[in-house]
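We close this part of the discussion by returning to an individual protein. Part of our work consisted of pairing the sequence of a single chain with a tokenised description of its backbone. The amino acid sequence and the backbone structure tokens for this protein are reproduced below.
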Amino acid sequence: MSVHLVLIDALNLIRRIYAVQERPFLLNNELAENTKQQVLFNTEKACEQALRNIVEQLQPTHALAVFDSQAPCWRYDIYPDYKKGRKKMPEHLADKLADIQDRFMKHFVDSLVSETDEADDLIATLAIKVALRGQNVTIVSTDKCFLSLLNPNIKVYDYFNRRYLDESYVLNKFSVKPNKLMDLWTLTGDNTNKIPGVAGIGQVTASELLNKYGSVKSLVNATDLKKNISEKLSQHNEQISLSRQLLTLKIDIPLGFNLKDIRLPDQNALASS
């Protein structure tokens, strides 16, 4: 059987939908108590409709909505400033996640909720496992980290702009191929997650260096670098190692289920029943 697994980065989808629903009701950047329930109801309905659209557009055989742990993950243990300053999910939205999961389940899409792992790592683990079997995976997310996984069997889909983020998109935006993105962000840092890079090396320089030397490892060991680049790399040697560790997606998390558990019912059979 040909498999097409769709993995939904659930909080990426839900929080963006919530932001759209919340915006018309904001007053001085705050949401009045008497409008919260309306915004939450609108968000639930919009998330359910988004899921239906995703299934209709992508036609998966299997699907799963993957949620982040609400507790700090392992990255905070090795770098306490990870995601420092990022706006937390509103408590009233967090309290509604179970209801949104129930709405997803109405359409036979189960949810994976981990107590310890980030959705990024869970999605990467699932995507790689399925792709290694020669089957197809589509990750629904606007999180750039998944672009590093792109290969003939793994696609990334931006639901909000209704487009696939492919290798040509990566080359146009970052000037390197997908397999060099983690090295690129190791050098430049990842401001979204507050992961520092090598001070003084921006995207243009980093992409030029990686396209010439191939990887950060080769770059660090190169003997023909300009003096200022060599000095910067030497001064930030420990930071490079830490940033690479923080950026690297885990692909070996024990999952405790298999594909048959998340198989969708045949849509034609449902339509005729």
In short: The longest strand covers residues 4-9. Strands lie at 4-9, 26-27, 30-31, 62-67, 110-113, 136-140, 154-158, 163-164. Confidence is low (pLDDT under 50) at residues 268-273.
